[in-house]
């Protein structure tokens, strides 16, 4: 949302009982587009703040429908000993810009199965309304699937024969297809950028266990299976259909890239970690505009990915296992060893030449955190930098 790494914006963790999420001081993609006259809407999972000042409609969105926190909440009311006099039943919520957050209906295991269909229908309705009045739009649809509990819509339950997690992926594909069909039906295909991606790798908790396939790991680690996700982008006439790349593009690159595409300016009063990737995406350059990035888990840098190398500073191969600080960092060649199984350090320091450039990048990033101190976790609202 901000073009900034979570360590800068204080969004490194979610802890109940303290303010979390993006402070209202942060400038979001939605605010950038809204300031330029776009209609903005979000339908789905927010998880970037659940207090006044940090709702989606406080952060640039004209409309919001979905859940403010996690899909785990849908399980609460069915769990052993749940006491709604202590913790209210979670709800699906909605709001409009400058309006109150309103509870629509309980978010439970039944509505958990149905919500992504609702999100799709609301997103299609939003686009239709904007096309009717001739207004450009930014439509953000963070589906709640496949996060646990990965329960598919009843129409998709059992369709694959490989369990609910596989069924959910078929449902996601179907819902995304409905969005694309709607864009075609509205006659705006050639003038609409569509991005389909994820913020992390597969679910790790049984029985909703997913696979990262060619790579290793699940979310909440610095393993490649956690960090590497699909990224598909369609812009007819600008991005060649069927083109592919194995270059690194990071989520933070979305803000400056979309700003360039729409002819907008990125914020100049704060560090923006993202870089403009439009030249690479449109085929003007073969290489990405970035060579790597730090991989944080909470407030600690677990690894740094650089080109096709990964240097682990803290080892954690499984999200539910304790992390281990390494006396000597590990080096992995992600081309010959995509599952990060063979540390090259014990092999006679076989790739020790990678350490100097990687640690140069690490030090440069850490110096930037000194130059512009991060938003502290738990910062109250309102919050503004002191320097």
TrEMBL record:
Q: Does the keyword Hydrolase apply?
A: yes
Which residue spans adopt a coiled-coil conformation according to this UniProt entry?
Answer: none
Record's keyword terms, sorted: Calcium, Hydrolase, Metal-binding, Signal
The highest taxon in the source lineage is Bacteria
Which InterPro entries does the UniProt record give? Alkaline_phosphatase_core_sf, Sulfatase, Sulfatase_N
Q: Where is the Sulfatase N-terminal domain?
A: 2-263
GO: which molecular function terms?
arylsulfatase activity; metal ion binding
- In Pfam terms, one family for this protein is Sulfatase
Q: Does the keyword Signal apply?
A: yes
Swiss-Prot/TrEMBL cofactor(s): Ca(2+)
Which family is it part of? Belongs to the sulfatase family.
The identity of this protein, by name, is: Arylsulfatase
Q: Name the species this protein comes from.
A: Aliiruegeria haliotis
């Amino acid at each position: 949302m901000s073009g900034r790494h979570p360590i800068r914006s204080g969004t490194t963790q979610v802890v109940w009982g303290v303010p979390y999420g993006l402070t209202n001081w942060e400038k979001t993609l939605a605010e950038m587009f809204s300031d330029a006259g776009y209609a903005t809407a979000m339908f789905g999972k927010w998880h970037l703040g659940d207090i006044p000042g940090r709702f989606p409609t406080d952060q640039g969105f004209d409309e919001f429908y979905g859940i403010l926190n996690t899909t785990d909440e849908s399980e609460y009311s069915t769990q052993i000993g749940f006491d709604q006099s202590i913790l209210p039943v979670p709800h699906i919520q909605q709001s409009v810009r400058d309006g109150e957050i309103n509870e629509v209906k309980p978010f439970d295991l039944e509505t958990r199965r149905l919500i992504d269909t609702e999100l799709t229908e609301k997103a299609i309705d939003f686009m239709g309304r904007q096309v009717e009045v001739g207004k450009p739009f930014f439509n953000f649809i963070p589906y709640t699937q496949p996060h646990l509990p990965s329960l598919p819509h009843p129409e998709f339950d059992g369709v694959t024969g490989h369990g609910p997690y596989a069924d959910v992926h078929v449902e996601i594909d179907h819902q995304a297809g409905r969005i694309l069909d709607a864009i075609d039906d509205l006659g705006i295909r050639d003038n609409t950028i569509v991005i389909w991606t994820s913020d992390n790798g597969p679910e790790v908790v049984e029985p909703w266990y997913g696979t990262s396939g060619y790579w290793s790991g699940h979310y909440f680690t610095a393993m490649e299976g956690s960090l590497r996700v699909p990224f598909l982008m369609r812009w007819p006439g600008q991005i060649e259909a069927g083109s592919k790349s194995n270059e690194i593009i990071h989520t933070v690159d979305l803000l400056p890239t979309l700003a360039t595409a729409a002819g907008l300016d990125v914020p100049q009063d704060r560090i923006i970690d993202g870089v403009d990737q439009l030249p690479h995406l449109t085929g003007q350059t073969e290489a990405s505009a970035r060579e790597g990035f730090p991989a944080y888990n909470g407030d600690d840098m677990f690894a740094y990915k650089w080109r096709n190398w990964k240097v682990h500073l803290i080892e954690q191969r499984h999200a539910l296992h304790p992390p281990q600080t390494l006396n000597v960092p590990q080096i992995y060649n992600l081309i010959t060893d995509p599952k990060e199984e063979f540390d090259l350090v014990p092999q006679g320091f076989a790739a020790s030449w990678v350490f100097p450039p990687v640690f140069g990048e690490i030090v440069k990033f850490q110096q930037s955190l000194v130059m512009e101190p991060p938003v502290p976790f738990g910062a109250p609202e309102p919050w503004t930098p002191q320097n």
